[in-house]
Amino acid sequence: MKGFEYVPAATLAEVVQVLAREGMRARLLAGGTDLIPRMNLGKENVPDYIVSLRRLGELNYLADGDGGSLRIGALATLHAVEADERVKNNFLALAEAAAAVGSAQVRNVGTVVGNVCSAASAADTAVALLSLGAKVNVVGPQGEREVDLPAFFAGPRRSSLARGEMVKEIVLPAPTREPPVRRGSAFLRVSPRRGMDCSVAAAAATVVLGKGGAVDEVRIGLGAVAATPLRARAAEEILKGQKPVGNLLDAATDAAANECRPIDDIRGSVEYRRQMVRVLVKRAVERACRRASE
């Protein structure tokens, strides 16, 4: 491995300054659970500068935001998110996704923001966050801006961040509109080994049920079955305003399978992944609806 300069940034402004000056020659280090192994395996070019965020304690938070939203700072670990009572009570799909990533050791240092910023198609927390309607707050030379999560993913391991920008936090919108509202979410995945392997396929669903059990709102996220994590929007449209049962739910799962663009690799074939999307979407929607009813 070639040498690099380690930059222990002391302020957010310093991070932005280095990223703006060095561009692709610099990479950020939070938990390092993705960057360091990929560098060691030769899957990632070794940058000239590694900018550490570890001295920026102000980015290590889960905080209540405006109107009941939840803000997750760039240094909040996967373990902190999976264990947080606000996440478990209001955004359960994210707690389930965070708990599925890696081992306990990985989750104690790896971050949710880092998992999302990897822009890997199998980033489990991104799948859950898509279903929950999350946004990312980005800071850069021009100040701060907010990006809808689907627009953040530009391609395989590519984000829409401009030169000098970094993700400061992820924002989850308020879980309710007007009380009483019935809302539930769920995350499911399939992998060769629980936690220690990347997902072969993953799905998350968030639903709001109206009168009679019909779906008022629904968002479905998919992972490991396309170039990036994605929303299954055609499946969502089928379910809106309807009871998610029987042939209607089957039609939605078929639509989700048709929306994804999986590949053949050592972990699974195209057809296997499509079939897993059908299974996982059906189970995630059913589980989210059950939780909403409860």
Keywords for this entry:
294 residues; alpha+beta; Uridine Diphospho-n-acetylenolpyruvylglucosamine Reductase, domain 2; Enolase-like, domain 1; five-stranded antiparallel beta sheet; 12 helices; 14 strands; 36% helix; globular
Describe the structure.
By secondary structure, the chain is α+β, with helices and mostly antiparallel strands. Among the domains are: 1-55, Uridine Diphospho-n-acetylenolpyruvylglucosamine Reductase, domain 2 (2-Layer Sandwich), CATH 3.30.43.10; 183-293, CO dehydrogenase flavoprotein, C-terminal domain (Enolase-like, domain 1). Helices cover 36% and strands 24% of the residues. The chain is built from twelve helices and 14 strands. A five-stranded antiparallel sheet has the order 4-5-10-6-7. α10 runs antiparallel to α11 and α11 crosses α12 (270-293).
Instruction: Indicate the percent of residues in helices.
Output: 25-40%
CATH superfamily of the domain at 183-293: CO dehydrogenase flavoprotein, C-terminal domain
- The side-by-side strand order for the widest beta sheet comes to 4-5-10-6-7
CATH architecture of the domain at 183-293: 2-Layer Sandwich
Total helices: the number is 12
Cα gyration radius (Å): 19 Å
SS-derived structural category: alpha+beta
Mean pLDDT: 93
SSE diagram, text form:
Blueprint (H helix, E strand, L loop, with lengths): L4 E4 L3 H11 L3 E4 L5 H6 L8 E4 L9 E3 L5 E4 L4 H6 L1 H6 L1 H9 L3 H6 L2 H6 L6 H8 L3 E6 L2 E6 H4 E3 L2 E2 L6 E7 L9 E9 L10 E9 L5 E9 L6 E2 L1 H7 L6 H14 L10 H24 L1
Parallel strand pairs: 1-3, 2-3
Antiparallel strand pairs: 4-5, 5-10, 6-7, 6-10, 8-9, 11-12, 12-13, 13-14
